[in-house]
Amino acid sequence: MLLIIAEKLDMKHGHEQTQIQAIKGLYKKSEITILTAHDSTINLKENRDTNCILASKRDQWRLPKRSMKRDLDAIQKFIGQLKKTKNISILVPTASVYNIKLCINLLELHPELARFSIRVLWISVIEKLSISERGRLVKFVEKKAITLLTETISLSNLLKESYGLTALNSFLLPASIHPDEPESNRDLSMESYIKIGYLGSFRKEKGALKLPTILADLKKLLNTSDTGLTLEFVMQKPIFKSKIGELLYSMRLNYSLQNTGKSKQKIKLRTLDKVLSHEAFVDAICSVDLLIVPYDLKAYRARGSSIIIDGVLAGKPVVYTDGIGQSELLEFGNAEAAVELVDFAPKILAIVQNIDTYYANAVNARRMLIAQ
User: Fold this and answer.
1) How confident is the model at residue 205 (pLDDT cuts 50, 70, 90)?
2) Which of 119, 186, 117 is nearest to 152 (CA)?
3) Bridge-partner residues for 91, per DSSP?
4) How buried is 121 (Cβ within 10 angstroms: 0-12 exposed, 13-18 middle, 19+ buried)?
5) Which pTM does this prediction carry?
6) N or C: which end of the chain has fewer CB within 10 A?
7) Closest CA relative to residue 214, chosen from 237, 231, 239, 191
């Protein structure tokens, strides 16, 4: 039996749901049960056996010791009630500081309880552990009681170099686009109309604040070219803590597109809802012709991104920040790397002007990823 610990199941934590769907595809012959927070609001169609018995993130933050005791008791009780208590595996698809501690504590209470696999997506969850907790984690990894998993080679190397932690770097999970979905094809009737997508949550480390500059640079390049193209920029509505912040950003974004040098060479802006359902997000990815990933290098140097996996599986060309994690998926002629912010516009235009070539290469990249 495979027990999956998913911290929260609701629309805002969409990757938790898609990860479970992907895991079911990998473990088709296994009985799968999900343990999640008591305030989760979505029951998964892919698996009806969802048990909302764990502490919420709010509980973990406000009452960490009480939450830990409650979760330790809940998991032990749940496993104790199973008909088969042997050969149990516990998988944490997205590691947090809290659930790493939870796994360590479970093993210290019951060394033979289960085999643990923890998927680490960013180095910060290891950095935030105390020296003692990291030492205990190293001990369990060395004993093979815990297997650490990553989705990038760079993070696996960093864990080894920084903390002596061995991690397998081949545990890629599809996010929104499923590998079994058919390859997408460009609408050839729209040769002179190209859609560029910046999709996913609106955050500074994901380059959200760079977009007005990128679009202004792209508009200048378009004005001096003879492409005859109209570009549509597709993004989700910006999210700011204050209305004034959102208003000022929207003004900057619209101002960046006002220079209309040639009437037939425009950049149009289309905004989607701030939070999209899984189906709407998939539709958005499939509707665009290329994706941009202007992520902050410091935040994503050893970190993967679901939008890169989605983009490759959807067969879309990508323009991304040079040096970020998962660049190994973008080395098939299906992408362009931007070293500096000023490089994004010319890289986007390079793909736009040779879109068919990049699309053909993107199909090959998709097949290579699926083959992994």
Assistant:
1) very high
2) 119
3) 4, 117
4) buried
5) 0.79
6) C
7) 231
